[in-house]
């Protein structure tokens, strides 16, 4: 080798080293200028409201108006994944962001045709482009994509990269991601796709605007069939599958996104917006509810069917609650969310309405608890006047002497008002509020006797809360809408003592059922507001509580809109859709008195309207009946007497014999003396009542320590 050649080779060698170093420096500088690697942390997804099992109830658009729903590879049909990889990037699982073979092919096509035929982009490069959109398809843009693809591969797994593609791929208009596209074009989640549907979802992102099924169905179908042909050549699908898929009709437009439990979802969205006023919606919000999607669909269909049958702009609202937890399993706030004639976007389950007779069971519960009455106590259903108030029955007739059981089952008005006059409407409202309901009275009006017949505004959610307490033997729980609300729920309050609540349920389960329904399975009560504006039915078995409202959203009267005819059949049908088998009510608690009318203590055999729960006056010449010991509000220490604790009781005034009750349960019957003994009273709050021979009653509230 000559010296000249040696010098030339040395020069070329050093020049190559300089060029490599210069290229490396340029590459390093280019990478530096690109900035931090985008990994998808800043992506804002559509807020989602899901059911208790994570199934979608209702999505919302992002703040910038896109449907962008997250999707994991395991949540998408595996057939679609295999078709996508085979069509877009067959070496996806082996390359490191850039596929050299694909790039060489693309380069050869450019040299041969003089322009870009295929970009040679891998799925990772497409993800890089989706994360960092670039306006053109220049070589500089392509180089940046390649750099980003390598960087992304070094930071994320293949599954994470695929997940980003599934969430961000464009499908036309404001649809991004395979899940949004599947819901919009096929009306279903992408977990189960046909061959034709999977091929369509593979084809659309290549030219999303020119292949949109809602605007260019012919182009969309042609693109889908080209994918089917190519995948057949690659052996991903067989000829028969491709032929059958090519004959399948392509979607002609977009479908509505799921909108189940729409009002509950809307409520959470508003709450979130209130908590984040600087943002239209919280980024990446997923609200999990206690609702069951399956049951929600069932009851929404039921409400729609019955409202359509009733006609006249009538709507239906339904709530189903799990007795054990207080969790709402279904909430139908109305019929047709977009139905303006039925005011579909108003949550009718949260609207104040006249409850009709649905509050009557709580009047009876107070009377049973106070010892004023027993289910077999006789009461007169006859014309009566309370000042200027003269209640009448629904059929304008009277039934004479009936038991309390029959009076409640037949929803007789006069006996209910007699009882309310004795227990006091103010006390009834206070007890309902303590249980979590929020009854509304007319402005500046005090509770009156009309409250018992519908003279107060009540929400369907209030009635569900109150009847849930009856189903739980008197223990009131707040309705739970989301799993995290369980920890925030207040301690249970007691609506009634166990015996009184059980007695009410034992009466209501004997109410005559609607036509073609089985009796003795559901404890329920109906109600009809004045002027046929609202029809109600609320009931429970041992597992669930269901509340139903029927009426016009504008409050207009509807001819013959009666709770028993319009709402009760929906109630029984709702229970059937929850489960074909009914769960029995809770067994009677200890101390419940089972007796015929003739076997009751004399004071409980017939209800005398003159008696009052707190202090009542005896007949002429008699001293007023009162409890002298223990006095009202007393704190009594019984700890020194354990384990055989007793509490001495003493009455003054009244006419013997006396009957003593604790929390509605008899502890001494037929006592001729004014003294009695309460054995093993236990600790805690207790309500003591004494009834004399004339039916007069006195009560005190004490605390045993």
UniProtKB/TrEMBL annotation:
Matching entries from InterPro entries are given as: Beta-lactam/transpept-like, Glyco_trans_51, Glycosyltr_51/Transpeptidase, Lysozyme-like_dom_sf, PBP_1c, PBP_C, PBP_transglycosylase, PCN-bd_Tpept
Q: Matching SUPFAM superfamilies, A to Z? A: beta-lactamase/transpeptidase-like (SSF56601), Lysozyme-like (SSF53955)
The Penicillin-binding protein transpeptidase domain, residue ranges = 317-551
Q: In which pathway does it act?
A: Cell wall biogenesis; peptidoglycan biosynthesis
**Which positions fall inside the Glycosyl transferase family domain?**
64-229
Pfam families given in the database record: BiPBP_C, Transgly, Transpeptidase
Q: What protein family is recorded?
A: In the C-terminal section; belongs to the transpeptidase family. In the N-terminal section; belongs to the glycosyltransferase 51 family.
Q: What is this protein called?
A: peptidoglycan glycosyltransferase
Which organism was this protein described from? Labrys miyagiensis
